[in-house]
Amino acid sequence: MDPIGFHSILILLGAAVVLVALFRYLRLPQVLAFICAGVLVGPTGMGWIPDLETTRNLAEFGLVFLMFTLGLEFSLPRLVAMKQIVFGLGGAQVLLSCLFFGAAAWWFGVSVEGAIVIGGMLALSSTAIVMKLLIEQLEQNSRHGRHAVSVLLFQDLVVVPFLILIPALGGDARESVWLTLGWVLVKSALVLVAIMLVGRWLLRPLFHEVAAARLREFFMFTVLLLTLTAAWLTQTAGLSFALGAFLAGMMLGETEYRHQVESDILPFRDILLGLFFVTVGMLLDLGAVQRWWPWIAATMAAILVFKTVLITALGKLFRMETGVALRTGLVLSQGGEFGFALLLQANQFRLLDERASQIVLAAVVLSMALAPLLVRHNGWIAKRLVPGYSRARVSGLEVIRAEADAARGCVIICGYGRSGQNLAWMLEQEGAASIALDLDPVRVRDARDAGKPVVYGDATRRDVLEAAGLHRARALVISFNDTAAALKILETARHARPDMPVIVRTMDDADLERLKAAGATEVVPESLEGSLMMGSHMLLLLGVPVSRIVRHVRDVRRDRYRMLRGFFHGADLFEERESAAYQERLHSVSLPEGARAVGKLLSELHLEETGVSVSAVRRGGIRGPMPAPETRLAAGDVLVLYGAPEALEEAEKVLLEG
């Protein structure tokens, strides 16, 4: 790489790192941090980086991986299951937004082709920002959250036709637009069928062979080759390279290697997407913003107001409550990152002049900057603007309260999935009353039709728990695996009833201590309980007396699963990306003759200060579990340590070097 290009990349990365850290501290989306980094170091900002072809090429690679990820997450069954909202509400919102914004752009002098692009660009919302904020606020399963996700699903899908349309609009002006568009659609259909046939017949056998090699690098390079080849084929056919990346992702998403692909491609995608958004920021001309700021402010206001009003009105047509429809509109009112993808393509084919491009780009960026404020306070705004919305929520609480009054002194079950239903059945067999809270309306309807004591309600809300009889409940159970929600419920429960038993289900032991510290009476790690039961059955089949098996199980539970926590990870190249759930692990350290720990007592080493505990010591082929602090270590001993990777490394230094 030439020195200027290398120097530019270093500046871009440095600015991005600093601004991402700052925006994270301010709880703002990192998409905006990358855009601001581009504005800061770009040709119209500090001028540290000229408008280089290198950065533009990197931005195009970022767009390829953005569309590849979209294809990977594409799910036809999911679309069919949510078809009424996805295609009904989502389709109507995109169509009417395209018509309104496109007509407005044409009225103000933009060409027909450019107006179509602007209409499509402003109809989209930010999937990255909305999903992140909804998950943080535990609203992704609320009514407005589910409606918003459905509309975002259609918006992401509609990007693909626009990526086909833009090259057609930017074709030879002497030819008929409709003729060009028809020919492009024919080519698109042929390429689509060819790629899908190749993917269906060759892709799965190919990846069986690649996976059988058990070489992570080989697997990763094959994914990259497939993605870039599909992008090259569609570009060669006169279509968008992003379309090929989408098709490649969609084909791989139908195989059993989807999660492995997602894990391997994530680092490349995040880096290149960051550079893509940096390049978008470099496109923003601060001088143009200063010249045309009234137009930019008016466009931003039109985006926020029109999309909010439109989605609210459409929501009413789809029989939503006014408050829920308004909250959905507020959540989706901003512009989105796929709009930048369309803008990049439009600029490549010169469909927009500088004035229109700068006004729309700046307006979308500003609307995304305001998105966190609108999403975080959507409930407060809805209550202020729709007085009846509060009463509607109160009426929902009345239903919960009536159900709880019918079963006084009941057990409250938060979540009515499989675990919650099994627990409710066991309580029913013993004649113990229960009430379950769940956010799946279909599940609640079916269960209530069957006569089960289940009500629709968000257990993380204090008023819902109080309506369910928190102050007189015999116990509370959190049966779903969501640590953030569980901590929120525990805070409410412990504040109201410090003496009430609370049992929490979790997938593993990663958050066991946090949940215990937050007030859980018992935490049931599903994976450890499964291991315990499997071991019990095996011992029974081997003829071990039942009394000894029961004693083993009792000892493990009494010790809060400490004997089972952690495991030897090994060096499996195809092990999925580690999550926080598997950070703590077991690690063996052998003490050679000259190790500093030889001859010392375990208590003298203070290993607990490094965050590590000693699970066992093996000496002369004999393994002693849970050794006493007075155990004196000798050369040749093997210590089995339990802790996080960094703590294990520190503890090993203490044992070997002092």
Automatic annotation (TrEMBL):
GO terms for molecular function: antiporter activity; monoatomic cation transmembrane transporter activity. Gene3D superfamilies: 1.20.1530.20, NAD(P)-binding Rossmann-like Domain, Regulator of K+ conductance, C-terminal domain. Keywords: Antiport, Ion transport, Membrane, Potassium, Potassium transport, Transmembrane, Transmembrane helix, Transport. Signal peptide: none annotated. It is a multi-pass membrane protein. One of its GO terms (biological process) is proton transmembrane transport. Pfam families: Na_H_Exchanger, TrkA_C, TrkA_N. The chain crosses the membrane at residues 6-26, 31-49, 61-80, 87-108, 114-135, 147-169, 181-203, 271-289, 295-317, 324-344, 356-375. It is found in: Endomembrane system. It comes from the Bacteria. The keyword Cell division does not apply. PROSITE patterns: RCK_C, RCK_N. Residues 408-525 form the RCK N-terminal domain. GO terms for cellular component: endomembrane system; plasma membrane. Residues 574-657 form the RCK C-terminal domain. Belongs to the monovalent cation:proton antiporter 2 (CPA2) transporter (TC 2.A.37) family. This is Potassium transporter. It comes from Candidatus Muproteobacteria bacterium RBG_16_65_31.
